[in-house]
Amino acid sequence: MAAEPVFLRDDVVAGFLSYDELIPRLEEVLGKFSRSVNTGVVQPVRSVIPLHQHNGFMGLMPAYIAYEDLLCMKTVAFYRRNENLHLPSTQATVFLFNPECGNVIAVMDGADITFKRTAAVSAISAKLLMPAQAEILCILGCGHQAVSHYEIFTKIFSFKEVRVCSRRLETAERFAARVQGPVKVFSSAKEAVHGADIIITVTNSSQPVLFGEWVKPGAHIAAVGACRPDWRELDDTLMGDAVIYVDSRDGAAVESGDIVQTGVEVFAELGEVLTGTRPALRNKTTVFKSLGMGIQDAVAAKLVFDKWKSSQ
Ligand SMILES: NC(=O)C1=CN([C@@H]2O[C@H](COP(=O)(O)OP(=O)(O)OC[C@H]3O[C@@H](n4cnc5c(N)ncnc54)[C@H](O)[C@@H]3O)[C@@H](O)[C@H]2O)C=CC1
Ligand SMILES: O=C([O-])C1=[NH+]CCC1
């Protein structure tokens, strides 16, 4: 009989997951994923079913990473809810398996993993692609992802100014009161992004929230929301003007409304830049279109599990 799987609550997971350890693991796995030779990093495009009655979706995200002998799957339900519901609009659970037999060894609440690995990947894109003298960061959307993005971006970069704007002013004000550090709250997205060197879009909008004519030439945009082929965060002008980077070309071609609906060419995967196969065009306006990958959850979950195990 296999041992019973351990269940790790979100606060336990959060205690074991640090950005410092996560970032190099993410860089390594993204690089291996994007190499054309077989690196044993296997991850299909997320399969998603709509939950029509509930205005939401359920996605399955399996991944196998041969160099770690790591087998993992995340289930993620995501909703376009209003801000008054008390549960986060993304609900995730991560399963770690024994790859030899397929039995589950750990089940983890996937909230913290999803917040941190997504923000960490955006930070990797910024390290590679944002202008050399980036002084102004602007975050559009003030939900859960905005918090983790604020945390890591202010931890690893130093900006002169951090601005936020959300659909409702109260949400942006609540965000500013919650995070540790200075933030300027804006009621207009156009004014908030004016002159910004880096803009993060972390909204649950299905319509563009960021327009090319507002964006400073040479700025870097990390676009994290709009994970359905009929959802948008960025307008046609911005998508047409910018050099487009993605986490996974296959995922982007199926899931990203900003890419599918504009038909723009993807210049590179982040992993291709990390391995030097494609250049980081820092002097141009760049968009990193993030959709989230099972391999990112897998390396995060392994870090957590190994730490939990050595604490026993
Ligand atoms: N790329 C990835 O790896 C991942 C992407 N996501 C996506 O990221 C997005 C944000 O996720 P959470 O922060 O967890 O959601 P959330 O529901 O906590 O926050 C969404 C925020 O967007 C704001 N918003 C909605 N429309 C807006 C508009 N027109 N202008 C400005 N702000 C607007 C809302 O007021 C809210 O503050 C969602 O679309 C989610 O599906 C989530 C997890 C991973
Ligand atoms: O990668 C992820 O966990 C998600 N991407 C879009 C919604 C959730």
UniProtKB/TrEMBL annotation:
Catalytic activities: Delta(2)-thiazoline-2-carboxylate + NADPH + 2 H(+) = L-thiazolidine-2-carboxylate + NADP(+); L-proline + NAD(+) = 1-pyrroline-2-carboxylate + NADH + H(+); L-proline + NADP(+) = 1-pyrroline-2-carboxylate + NADPH + H(+); (R)-lanthionine ketimine + NADPH + 2 H(+) = (3R,5R)-1,4-thiomorpholine-3,5-dicarboxylate + NADP(+)
What subunit structure does UniProt give? Homodimer. Binds the thyroid hormone triiodothyronine (T3); T3 binding inhibits enzymatic activity.
Which EC number(s) are documented for this chain?
1.5.1.1, 1.5.1.25
Offer a single GO CC term for the protein.
cytoplasm
A GO term (biological process) for this protein? thyroid hormone metabolic process
| Protein name, per record | Ketimine reductase mu-crystallin
Signal peptide (UniProt feature, chain positions): none
Superkingdom of the organism of origin? Eukaryota
A Pfam match: OCD_Mu_crystall
Single GO MF annotation:
thiomorpholine-carboxylate dehydrogenase activity
Q: What protein family does this chain belong to?
A: Belongs to the ornithine cyclodeaminase/mu-crystallin family.
